[in-house]
Design goal:
Length: 458
């Protein structure tokens, strides 16, 4: 049994006093500080080290996607930011970190009860750590997104402040809740629509359309788009290099069928009863994301009662969190277990097919549904009002995840009721966005010099 946290026995008054006392150790304005450490790692060397154990034919695609803009570079360089955050002052207030809380890692998905939720949706780097690390990564992503969208510096700062203010104000709300109230809290799609309608912005039509579209995104819709009927059976349609059958790959391993049965054995009894009603049909490699390109990612096609009852699962390789060198090793020896446990702790509700297992050569994997009413907002299309609303929603969702896993009363007391913490984070975010643009330029120059092979437009 996991040992009870010592702070669990403190009174609310003691927790508030603790949070306020920590301001002496790390003043809230101290979060504004950013300058590269004298021993800062070489940008290219650090990120190329991640390519060592990845699929060689895919790493040029990864660098091509990262080089597209400072914002896409930021998405793929969580390891670099982890190294940059490590030397900064820490309050000691720990939460379960997403570990890569940039704005593209939030979105909508279905709860087991079929409600459409909005939450963090990527946990590859999850690990317990300082709450401010997620807040800073989220804030800097909004500065970069605003710049990418052609917004002014004032607009970018206002949007960034909105994300931090929402985090702080919602954490204050969670600090006043009972434990079960926090645990059962969630952000649903209707909450987003209410926020948009309140602002009376033109974003309302796009948001309503996105919510409506999300309800249609399930395994049947994915199967109709990604498969074809061959000899009376569905098969994935090859779309190289982004989607390919295993037998079309170099040095492929055909053990996916065996892996499926091992994975099924790790689920809870009721979920295992359900998954065993499906038959294994097909498997293919699928390239997804930016930073994770090159790690093993597969999709598995299962058949239920007939070919019009498909289920598509995604298998993602889980490696060591980029945060571990700077915080502590995960208490989970299996990286897939780490990802699953972190997701279940932070999310209001998680995929019923979420599981983990080991694969060939001892690699770690986790499984989930490929699509279950999942949808993401196209941030590139948002102007200032829409991006500010999205910032508020992300800050809310992040605060809820942190409140479930961390010392919410002390965190809220530390941040306080004013905007001193918000301003400090915004200062950091602007400075770190500047650093990201410089780092991106270093990468672009290396690519032009032929030092990094890339494939663009994929």
């Amino acid at each position: 049994m996991r040992r009870t946290q010592p702070w669990a026995h403190q009174t609310p008054q003691e927790r508030r006093a603790e949070g306020k006392e920590l301001r002496k150790l790390v003043p809230r304005r101290a979060h504004s500080e950013w300058k590269p450490a004298p021993d800062r790692p070489d940008v290219i060397k650090l990120l190329r080290a991640q390519d060592t154990d990845r699929q060689k034919d895919l790493t040029p695609i990864r660098w091509g996607r990262m080089s597209a803009s400072p914002f896409t570079f930021y998405r793929g360089s969580a390891a670099l930011m982890a190294a940059d955050l490590a030397p900064l002052p820490r309050t000691g207030l720990q939460v379960q970190l997403c570990g890569d809380a940039h704005l593209s890692n939030f979105g909508m998905y279905a709860s087991p009860e079929r409600s459409l939720l909005f939450d963090v949706n990527d946990f590859d780097e999850t690990l317990p750590g300082p709450f401010s690390w997620d807040v800073k990564r989220l804030a800097a992503s909004f500065v970069l997104a605003a710049r990418s969208n052609g917004l002014t510096a004032d607009e970018a700062r206002g949007i960034t402040l909105a994300s931090v203010r929402s985090y702080r104000e919602h954490m204050a709300m969670f600090a006043e809740m009972r434990e079960l109230e926090v645990w059962y809290s969630h952000v649903v799609a209707d909450d987003l629509l209410t926020m948009v309608r309140r602002m009376k912005t033109k974003t309302i039509k796009g948001t309503e359309a996105l919510v409506a579209k999300a309800h249609t995104r399930d395994s049947l819709q994915a199967a109709n788009k990604m498969t074809e009927i061959v000899d009376g059976e569905r098969r994935f349609t090859d779309q190289p290099p982004l989607m390919m059958h295993m037998d079309a790959l170099t040095n492929a391993d055909d053990s996916a069928h065996t892996l499926f049965h091992q994975y099924a054995s790790t689920l809870e009894d009721d979920r295992r009863e359900l998954i065993e009603r499906y038959d294994f049909v097909d498997v293919a490699r699928k390239v997804v994301g930016v930073g994770s390109v090159g790690t093993i990612c597969l999709i598995v096609l299962l058949r239920g009662r007939d070919i019009d009852d498909p289920l598509i699962l995604q298998i993602k390789e889980a490696t060591r969190s980029v945060l571990e060198p700077y915080i502590a090793r995960s208490r989970f020896q299996h990286s897939g277990h780490r990802v699953v446990a972190g997701q279940q702790l932070m999310q209001a509700a998680s995929d019923i097919f979420l599981g983990w297992m080991s694969g060939p050569a001892g690699r770690h994997f986790y499984w989930r549904q490929l699509r279950d009413m999942k949808a993401s907002i196209d941030v590139a299309l948002l102007r200032a009002p829409g991006l500010e609303l999205y910032a508020e929603a992300c800050g809310w969702a992040l605060a809820r995840g942190h409140a479930r896993s961390g010392r919410r009363i002390a965190i809220s007391a530390y941040m306080g009721a004013g905007d001193r913490f918000d301003q400090g984070i915004a200062d950091f975010a602007v400075a770190y966005a500047d650093q990201t643009e410089r780092d991106h330029e270093v990468v672009v120059k290396a690519i032009k010099a032929g030092k990094i092979p890339v494939e663009t437009g994929i």
